[in-house]
Amino acid sequence: MRVIFICSGNTSRSPMAEGIFKGMVTDVEVSSAGFSTLSGEKASKNAVLACRKHNIDLTGFRTTNISDVDFGETDLVLAATQSARDKIIRLHPDVNAYTIRQYAGGYDDLDIKDPSEDSLGDHVVCFFEIKEALERIVESHEEFRR
Predict the structure, then answer these.
(1) Are 6 and 34 in contact (CB under 8 A)?
(2) Phi and psi dihedrals of 44, rounded to 5?
């Protein structure tokens, strides 16, 4: 199974989601990408720090622009926001795309807010929002259980 996380810049939310999810699942290819990024950039400093506090290493992470992704080989796209999900569906109508929270279920607000670039605190809050939703996904979708 191949899962890709999507956000705007692929420097905070989607790399954190990728790192968190990789620690939760086995036999799943996990990656991430963004709409407004060049491939090969580093994750944001605060995303790296927020993840490091939870033993997730993003120091070697490099961004991927969605134009460099083969969506035909992707089983599931999980986007940080409804607008990102909708954009993916417009560009790739055959892809199986949801927001992270939509796929997790039980949320009224389906968007995970982009953390302020300058705020470690916002990144830590975002980390826990993503982690909670991904834990729900693993619990409710047996294809991700170890």
Answers:
(1) yes
(2) -65, 150
Cα–chain-centroid distance for residue 51? 13
Question: Does the model's pTM come out above 0.85?
Answer: yes
CA distances to 36, 106, 116 from 74, rounded to whole Å, are 20, 25, 30
Q: How many CB atoms lie within 10 A of CB 39?
A: 15
Residue pLDDT tens, the chain, 146 long: 999 999 999 999 999 999 999 999 999 999 999 999 999 999 999 999 999 999 999 999 999 999 999 999 999 999 999 999 999 999 999 999 999 999 999 999 999 999 988 899 999 999 999 999 999 999 999 888 76
- Rounded Cα distance between 65 and 9, Å, is 8
As a whole number of angstroms, the distance between CA 79 and CA 99 comes to 4
The C-alpha angle with vertex 90 and arms to 84 and 4, in degrees rounded to 5, equals: 50
Task: Show the tokens assigned to 14.
Answer: 């989607």
β-pairing, 76-79 vs 97-99, is parallel
Task: Give the closest residue to 76 by CA, choosing from 138, 13, 125.
Answer: 138
